[in-house]
Design a protein that fits this description.
Length: 113
Amino acid sequence: MWCKPTEKQLAKIPELYSGELISLEEKVIHMHFFMGGSDWYVTEYNPKEGNFFGFVILNGMYDCAEWGYFNYKELCDLKMSFLEVDRDKYWKVRKANEVDNICKAQAWELHKV
């Protein structure tokens, strides 16, 4: 993985299941990973198991994108030819309904900050 997050950065992500009562549109996206046409948006994290919860768009397939769980180690190990997953180091923390790709996939109205 390019630009791996530090333990300090990962520690800022809320604990897994802490946002169960928050609507999907209001969930805060703390981190963004990408590779080619795929995007992983992180809302929660369990450091013991290395599992994230968030929104995933694979290969630009917005109609198949979904909320769910994905594993940090597996994300780190994912490689395709010369491509590796990268962390968006310029990501600004914001709600899901303020992220273009998520709004497009969920057919939500985009809320500009």
